[in-house]
Amino acid sequence: MKKSPLINIILFLLTFCSTLVVGALHAGADIVKDPLQVFRGLPFSVTLLGILLVHEFGHYLMSRRHGVAASLPYFIPFPSLFGTLGAVIKMKSPITTKNALVDIGASGPIAGFVVSVVAVIIGLVFSEVRDMTGVGEMIVLGDSLLFQILGWAVIGPIPSAYDLFLHPIAFAGWIGLFVTSINLFPVGQLDGGHIAYALLGKWHRWLSIVLIGAFLAGGILPSLISGQFEFNNWLIWGMLLMILGPKHPPILFPDIPLDRNRKAVGIAALIIFILTFIPVPIVIR
């Protein structure tokens, strides 16, 4: 019996509403005085949901191609800086081979990465460089290596005492790159964990444990040195990865070797992870 997609549709519509509101607020709309200004959030909402859709349907279509039963994407609305916690699909049957594991794991991040880069480039064209002299406390987004490169290519060097104010489309693209990097952590059952398991086999679990330990240490050591507890980004990463866990479920046919093309895809995913990783995503300055 085929399951109705009603819950998927409802969650998508709720996420559209939450990202629409967040996008409008980022655009400076006063939706309390004029509720119709909420539509100023469309560029952000449509771009971000488009990136997430491409990412999740990359997984979904590749799962179907390899005969792995998977659900349609479940979007997660959430009242936050982004308006959503992303989207997930649920695997309903075991993954068969290492090659299928790489295809399914890498297809989403790579597809979402491509769309995110396009969004960032388009959004940067419409972004503004503003004088920050006398500006008070504000939220500042961290830069990945790739975002710095794209910013330099599109905007050029930014003078001291100035900063870049992202257009909503560029902001959605930044989130897309951020989501890509999170999913490509080679830990547990994240997309990067799938790829690492296919490439490394039993060593995947040890890599997961080492990375979780490194993030936790990076979060705790500053507090030990300063003598004052600080809940920093590294500690958040470590706790998140610890909750997800280091284990990966076995595949059905582990003896079928990984082919050369899938190894190249794994290397490409690693390069994308390095380019999109943001050590400190958000700070108050």
Topology:
Elements: H1 6-26, H2 42-65, E1 74-77, E2 84-88, H3 98-125, E3 128-131, E4 139-141, H4 145-154, E5 162-165, H5 168-183, H6 191-200, H7 203-226, H8 233-244, H9 260-276, E6 282-284
Antiparallel strand pairs: 1-2, 3-5, 4-6
Q: From the alpha-carbon coordinates, what is the Rg to the nearest angstrom?
A: 20 Å
The biggest sheet, with number of strands, parallel, antiparallel or mixed sense and barrel status, is: 2 strands, antiparallel
- Biggest sheet strand line-up: 1-2
Instruction: Please estimate the helix content.
Output: 55-70%
Order of helices and strands: HHEEHEEHEHHHHHE
Supply database-style keywords.
285 residues; mainly alpha; 2 domains; two-stranded antiparallel ribbon; 9 helices; 8% strand; globular
What's the quick description here?
This protein folds into two domains: 208 residues, no CATH class; 70 residues. It contains nine helices and six strands, in the order H-H-E-E-H-E-E-H-E-H-H-H-H-H-E. It has a two-stranded antiparallel ribbon with strand order 1-2. The protein has a two-stranded antiparallel ribbon with strand order 3-5. Strands 4-6 form a two-stranded antiparallel ribbon.
